[in-house]
Amino acid sequence: MNPNPLLKKLGFSDTDRLVIIHTDDIGMCHASVQAFKDLWEFGTITSGAVMVPCSWFPATAEMCRANPEMDMGVHATLNAEWESYRWSPLSTRDQASGLIDADGYFHQWHEAVYQNAKPEAVAVEVNAQVERALASGIDVTHVDSHMGTIMNQKFIQSYLQAALSRVLPNMLPRIGAMGLEMMGITAEESQTYVPIMAQLESQGIPMLDGLFSMPLEHGDDHIGLAKKMLSEVPVGITHFILHPSIDTPELRAICPDWRARVANYNAFMSIELKDFIKNSDFKLIGYRQIRNAMRNG
Fold it and tell me: Which CATH architecture has domain 5-295?
């Protein structure tokens, strides 16, 4: 790939490696909110994204109002994946929207969203989520995607519009970005995105060179895994995802993968990993820097 033009816009060279260490699912449960606060204060994360339809969103907004320097985006949410804990759209209770299942919650999985949700209803919902975050006093820095659901071809225009209409960056991989498959986009499907992504980049829309994610399958040696993955980030800008939570009864009741979420948290709360990050040759940034560069032209 050609050098990412955003590097120079941010004041870096074409060969620099920049990493956004990003926490997903903030507000999904209390454990995620406390984890974000701890990690932000510890200094090993640079950004996060809140799930506005979830029960602990108000606590997240309160935390951000009290700490306006926090870098918090909106985790555009169209599905509710857990068995015993669910959430619903902000914008509608109408079954005809295709956003909700027979019980009135978001569909659990991507496929049901793709098969049922009307694109116009998705547009209304994602805009409602961004507006709720802004109205709650969060200085929203970006819009990204819960489980990649809104990146589907049927909905991606809504994803882009919700951010760009407010001069916010999206989490958007360049074609050829390392880890593109993490978004659920196959090599074959990626070809359909080429014209869209090329046009966006030509317009100066910020895009990413790497997408990395800490594992949710197990809780073993997350410090070692984080070191290895961070060592492998490419030249350019990488969105590095973790799902940290403190260990609570609520978390254990909700998430079968709670051990991995706690391991994510413990790894990034370790002095060992903090020192590794400090002494590495990549540079940490947040989405606020990217947003401000967009707004400054």
Answer: Alpha-Beta Barrel (3.20)
Token pair 């589907």 is found at 152
Write out pLDDT tens, residues 211-253.
Answer: 999 999 999 999 999 999 999 999 999 999 999 999 999 999 9
Q: Is there a contact between 244 and 35 (Cβ–Cβ < 8 Å)?
A: yes
Phi, psi of 209 (to 5 degrees): -100, -15
Kindly report whether the global pTM for this prediction surpasses the value 0.85.
Answer: yes
Q: Which helix (H) or strand (E) holds 113?
A: helix 110-116
CB 283 within 8 A of CB 236: no
For residues 259 and 234, give the distance between their C-alpha atoms in angstroms, rounded to a whole number: 29
Question: Which of these, 236, 234, 213, 230, lies nearest to 290 by C-alpha position?
Answer: 236
| Burial of 59 (C-beta count, 10 Å sphere; 0-12/13-18/19+) | middle
Give the count of alpha carbons within 13 A of 22, CB side only: 31
Q: Report d(CA 96, CA 61) in Å as an integer.
A: 31
Q: SS3 of 177, please? A: strand
Nearest Cα to Cα of residue 43 among 16, 71, 68:
71
The torsion defined by the Cα of 76, 159, 283 and 274, in degrees rounded to 10, comes to 10
Domain extent listing, the chain:
5-295
